[in-house]
Amino acid sequence: MVLKLHGSGQSTCTRRVGALLREKKIPFELVVVDMMKGEHKSPAYLEKQPFGQIPYIDDDGFILYESRAICRYLDDKYPTNGPKLIPTDPKKKALFEQAASVELNNFDPYAHDAVAEVVFKPYLGQTPDQEVFKKHIANLEKNLAAYEKILSKQKYVAGDEFTLADLFHLPYGYLVAAAGSQALYDKSRPNVVRWWTDITSRDSWVAVKDGVVESNA
To answer: Are strands 3-7 and 56-59 parallel, antiparallel or unpaired?
Structure first.
């Protein structure tokens, strides 16, 4: 039975899972959830995802939500499909978990809030505040200074191999640029620019950056 990805092709977290599915060449069916109609808050949906968020997967009856957890699960289940994106060596895996934690705590909150201010607010009929946006970008750039130090010593955030820790950055980082910030392309941080150009050029991200569509791999 083909894996089913329940979500919206345009959502950030659905794109995170979509990038992983493309990277690993895993066939999947996209089951579109219409958030404008409130389908993610319906009783049937809440049975599968009690928080009413997207996406979740149905893997032959196994239900899993939270995009990062889904990515970890699929990399474990399909270790020989495409590259292995979570290292197995204990030290390399520890560095991966360190980098994944950095993304979750030092990148995502600021990128998310910046994007929410100028991209999501208008979508919801609200007025964005450019000063709030600038504050979030300033906080993000403080942390990108630390990224610059890390990436001056290695190719990717967890070492010299591409991992899920890199992939996790893609959806909100992409929208930071779309929101009007050049934080990830600032030439004063050349290693960040190199890294960001590298990971956003991967075929898996190019395939989903503007929206996820199902794939027979």
So the answer is: antiparallel
